[in-house]
Write a structure and sequence with these properties.
Mean pLDDT: 88
Number of strands: 0
Shape: globular
Number of helices: 9
Low-confidence stretches: 1-7
Structural class: mainly alpha
Helix content: over 70%
Largest sheet: none
Order of helices and strands: HHHHHHHHH
Length: about 180
């Protein structure tokens, strides 16, 4: 089984597993509809609610549901990553948090080029998880991606910078060993 994001707590992991169990019984068309509905809900929520704790909680709930669909809907990753909406790209990030893919390392780093703090945070988690998965085989690409993300991440956003700093430390430790 694919392990959920490193930052996930036990309740988060349990929720993802429950969503995955339900998703495994859904037709591919229904699964596609669910993922796209979550992407649309993200876009609508972001547009309708003012920034703050309530909106962040709502968006966190959407990410959790997207993560729960990652295993069953992973074939949608290319379509979501190339999607025209922020919600579709966020769904791709949520999938990559759960199932890292070395082909999307640079794509994740580019989410820091003008992205919102919410998207940057989740892209940072996905990059951190990619470092865990691929640091022995793709160290140069990962180092470049993490350094790019750090150069674009807002200085005051410690929650965005911490997973990136952790990733860089892992990559550096690998060199020292």
């Amino acid at each position: 089984m694919v392990e959920p994001a490193a930052a996930a707590g036990p309740r988060h992991i349990e929720a993802i597993q429950k969503i995955d169990q339900v998703a495994s019984r859904v037709s591919p068309d229904q699964l596609t509809q669910q993922v796209l509905a979550l992407a649309t809900e993200y876009n609508a929520t972001r547009a309708a609610m003012s920034p703050g704790r309530d909106r962040t909680r709502k968006l966190d709930s959407l990410i959790l549901r997207m993560q729960g669909l990652a295993k069953q809907a992973y074939a949608m990753l290319p379509e979501l990553a190339a999607g025209p909406s922020d919600g579709e790209r966020l769904a791709a990030i949520a999938f990559l948090q759960i199932i890292p893919n070395k082909d999307y390392i640079d794509w994740l780093a580019k989410r820091f080029d003008g992205g919102t703090p919410f998207v940057m945070y989740h892209a940072a988690i996905a990059l951190r998880n990619a470092v865990d998965a691929f640091r022995k085989s793709d160290k140069d690409a990962l180092t470049s991606a993490v350094n790019h993300a750090l150069s674009q991440a807002p200085a005051g956003e410690l929650n965005i910078r911490k997973p990136l700093d952790d990733a860089l430390k892992l990559l550096t430790q690998e060199t020292l060993e």
